[in-house]
Structures are given as C-alpha cells and as structure tokens.
Amino acid sequence: MANWDEDLPTEAAALRSVPFFEGLTPEDLDRMARIGHRRSFPAGAPMVSKDEIGGGLFIILSGSATVQTGGKTHTLGPGQFFGEMALLAGKPRSATVTAAEPVEAMTLETMYFKPFLVKNPSVAVTILGVVAERLREVQDRIDSGQPVTSNET
Ligand code: CMP
C-alpha cells in the first residue's frame, strides 16, 4: 500500500504519528516540522523546570517523562505533549517535567506555535481538551477529599 508519509521529510513524518496532528495537511506538517527542533534528553534530565520563564510546547516522540504536580506523578509518553500551560498563559512553568527514560522530543517555540494555533483551530481545540482533562483530574481529587499536597503556589 502506498504510504505518502514516505514523501514527507523525516521530521514531518515523526509529527504525523502524533495523534493530535493527524488531521494536518502535509503542508502544515512540513511547516510544523520546520519551526520545530528535535531534542534528546537522557534519563533523569529535567526537560522543563518549575518557575522557568518562557518556553514552548514539547511533544514526546519516544520515551516517557514524568510531571509532579498537585501531589501526584503523571507519566507522559509518545504522542503526548506538555508545556502548553506556560505557552498559553504567558506564565512561568507550573511544574518540573523530567525524562523518565531517554526522551526524543519535538519542541515548538511559542512565537511560532501561537500563530499556528490561530490558523489551525482544530489543533487548538485538541490542546484545550487535554488542558481541561488535566484540570479536571486535579479538581476531582480536591472534590473527593484526596490530598493535593504541593509546595506550589
Ligand atoms: P507548563 O506549566 O508550561 O510546564 C509544566 C507542564 O507540566 C505544564 O505546562 C503541563 O504541560 C504539564 N502538567 C501540569 N499539570 C499537569 C497534569 N495535572 N497532568 C499532566 N501534565 C501536567
């Protein structure tokens, strides 16, 4: 069977495998890949640090990373993203995200990614859905009286 991913540059083909990018045209994928940087992190390395200013979106291509926030550890794997909170709110990082094993990630700078979201509302809506789920998970724990211990503000 013909696979048109074969015609995409490697970076764009990597993004094609990310579920929330699957609706993008080859041109959009290529544009994303051009503004993205592929980065590798060894196990144990902080990928973003709490309170750090600036940043962008990280999409995990392989490996896994952990986020400790709201008194719980969340594990994120291939196809999942983080860094959207600082990007969308224009605030410092809300948590430290650490590579749990060697991680290959694509990073998208805020100054390029925000205009991309405006032009691709379906991607923005998908990101909003994930943010709502993350908030909801913490809210449910608060409402059920489970500890949400944190030294965060
Ligand atoms: P940001 O604040 O930019 O940097 C830390 C990231 O951790 C944050 O964006 C989110 O992407 C991620 N994060 C924060 N809270 C949660 C959560 N409850 N579940 C999963 N990821 C989270």
Molecular structure report:
Helices cover 37% and strands 25% of the residues. The chain has 153 residues and is α+β, with helices and mostly antiparallel strands. It has a single domain, classed as Jelly Rolls, CATH 2.60.120. The strands form 2 sheets. A 4-stranded antiparallel sheet has the order 1-8-3-6. Strands 2-7-4-5 form a 4-stranded antiparallel sheet, with no helix packed on it. A hairpin with a 2-residue loop joins strand 4 (65-69) and strand 5 (72-76). Helix 1 (10-16) packs across helix 2 (26-35). It is globular and about 50 Å long. The N and C termini lie far apart (53 Å). The mean pLDDT is 87. Bound molecules: adenosine-3',5'-cyclic-monophosphate. Residues 48, 55, 67, 69-70, 74, 82-86, 93-95, 97, 134, 137-138 line the site of adenosine-3',5'-cyclic-monophosphate. Adenosine-3',5'-cyclic-monophosphate (CMP) binds next to strand 4, helix 3 and helix 5.
